Amino acid sequence: MTSSIHIAVIALGCLGFASPTFAEGEHALDLSALPEAGSIAPAEGLAAWDSIHAVLSHPRCLNCHVGDDNVPLWGTVAAPDRIHGMAINAGDSRIGAEGLSCNACHQTSTRPNAVPHAPPHTGMDWRLAPVAFQWTDRTSAEICAQLRDPDRNGGRDAARLIDHILHDAELIGFITWSFDPGADRDPAPGNMQAHLEDMAIWTAAGMPCPEP
Ligand code: HEC
Ligand code: HEC
């Protein structure tokens, strides 16, 4: 499936279809405006990175992209460092398999999140991101270097980073939820379509990163 999406993105880019979309209904994404590799200047790529970093460094994303203490965060914009209550530790499994598993409270469901302070749910099994994807306590330059390094991003090249977003939209996963969390939570800045376009611009520019 991953490779067929990859091929679809390339084909759509070449053929310039008017309005190819991906996923259904309110989660549909428009792929028609995505740039081709090499078509974007580094300065434009860096500007797109700044927008990407504003998303990645928002509590909605950081709360799961934590380090090797395996402790999820309950960060908010006002209090970004707040740790998860109830002495939750995700363990090396990152899903709490060693103790209380995340899905004891966080169900897997695509229903909207309506109740404030209830455990949020998505269409993917709730868990922390792998330790290699830690973004807490990291600068923009550090996160950028991580994200373009296949050894630290789950083996993803540029196309697979884009596929990851499309896959998330299809399942109503963690990124989709972060932009539309419901239940009075602050959303990550922007929306899924803008994030997809920024990632496409950044990767098409060769993944430029700010100076450390
Ligand atoms: C005993 C129930 C329970 C378990 C088990 C649990 N959580 Fe939670 N979790 C909650 C509740 C309740 C909230 C919402 C707190 C609030 O908004 O005030 C929450 C919120 C969160 C948030 C914050 C989401 C956000 O951005 O607002 C993260 C991240 C999180 N949990 C991760 C995990 C992980 C990872 C695990 C498994 C290792 C886990 N939780 C296990 C009850 C639980
Ligand atoms: C509920 C926890 C959770 C939240 C919230 C979350 N992620 Fe993740 N993220 C994960 C997990 C688990 C993985 C690993 C799964 C995979 O590689 O497909 C991951 C992987 C990733 C990856 C791929 C590899 C890499 O280099 O980091 C990206 C990119 C990513 N997330 C972006 C985001 C963005 C952007 C947000 C906020 C808009 C976000 N995530 C919010 C759990 C989360």
From TrEMBL:
InterPro entries for this protein: Cyt_c-like_dom, Multihaem_cyt_sf
Signal sequence annotation = 1-23
Ranges annotated as spanning the membrane: none
Domain Cytochrome c span(s) in chain numbering: 80-207
Q: Which keywords annotate this record?
A: Heme, Iron, Metal-binding, Signal
Q: Which domain of life is it from?
A: Bacteria
Record's protein name: Cytochrome c domain-containing protein
